């Protein structure tokens, strides 16, 4: 048993005052070293300060020890052979209580000072009595500045509400929790708080003041605003994706019909020029829709080898639209081709996010430059990349620069130095994610007041053999196979059918996935299915699944503005299905159709030819 548990001990005496029995607690409190030696001996022989044997009422004696005082009380007993009972009781002296109070106070002070919440107390007159370190950090006043001074945190417009709350806590003795309000800092700025309070009582239970725990909501509000902004941007992205989808269908018809007109050999030169102008405008609209699809993040990730120089120059017009006229845009490309393997739409995201970041750093204008080059990285500077030649995109602005303490965090998701509601903190995180996903790395160098430079390194890709042996761009591949078009938009369905028939194919059409499955179940044999994605009853994703369950090797091309279905996106990105981005031109349709048909297993093609030969002979 510990010291605190030894409060009372008992000793039994016979009629002569000799010890019959005593417990260990009595021995400890009375200071008896050998309890067994006490049996049969008079208690007075061992304890000179033991109380006298009483005749009637109890007798008492008290001994002041070094650590505590002990009181012995002797009473008569009536159960033979026990004649007297002596109890020993520990008494707490003032020094013990003071020491325990001091330890308790030190513990409480440590907890209060270590608390991340601002903790303070005020007296009946609203004067500050206690003010912890978190309060100093939150509000700016030191403990010495506010101790004994009137409570300084209440702005003028909050005084009536504060008086009501103070009366509730101090006058009525009722605390409250979770009340949100605004308080003022030493520099005059305001801070949103969540307050938890309780009355302070004296020994008689009278209210002497109040205490408050104040939770700074600044970081919480920033996170909430970022989430709201992200949700808003997601909603805008969905809206942009929906608009892009509708425009893609319209452009598919416009561009398709123009392609058909261009195939008309009897078209007059003047009419052909008009058609060419319509196609030019249609292709410009297609670029705009592609940017909307990039913004809504609904494009399929399809890495391919592209010339970084060519892509950067193509994106220059888009970048100029993003920037204020006070910002000069410079684009310098290397004199050699710079092949890299990535998704062009992802590269556009990198360009846009770096442009937006630079524009924010140049509110009064400046210069933004994009430059490409080849850099050979040595082993000691390549980490985490491999040593050797890399394509380098350098993006430099003449803006405000990035502070040294901020620089390590700029690629962290949701990290932003912008005001609440002005940014998601995802732009540079997206840049870093895209570049790393494509095997590259990003470096940044910045000097406050001078500007910032980003270097994007990407592996130098090998140019595919077919890219070097170019075929005639004017050649349009044709065929005679049977193709099933599945499309719920009447105009798109009719236009696509006419384009394929112009190319020599046999065409069947269905208005949705259910209609297509009924046709296949009825015996229709096709060599290729060209399907939209979003359709009533059965959509493109479910149609692909059911067709492949029936005929695993049947080629399917999804023709849509985006791939919303996660499962179908995986099918396309892993090469088990093909994707054709709307709006589709005659050349794109011809090339994709021919590639899908030629990629079929050879025995499938032989069976098809044999079947067609049999039908011809019959």
UniProtKB/TrEMBL annotation:
Coiled coil: none annotated. InterPro entries: CheY-like_superfamily, HATPase_C_sf, HATPase_dom, His_kinase_dom, HisK_dim/P_dom, HisK_dim/P_sf, PAS, PAS-assoc_C. Its EC number is 2.7.13.3. Residues 177-229 form the PAC domain. It comes from the Bacteria. Residues 104-173 form the PAS domain. One of its GO terms (biological process) is regulation of DNA-templated transcription. One of its GO terms (molecular function) is ATP binding. The keyword Nucleotide-binding applies. Residues 482-597 form the Response regulatory domain. Transmembrane segments: none annotated. Keywords: ATP-binding, Kinase, Nucleotide-binding, Phosphoprotein, Transferase, Two-component regulatory system. Residues 593-618 are annotated as: Disordered. It catalyses: ATP + protein L-histidine = ADP + protein N-phospho-L-histidine. The modification 4-aspartylphosphate is found at residue 532. Residues 242-462 form the Histidine kinase domain. This is histidine kinase. It comes from Enhygromyxa salina.
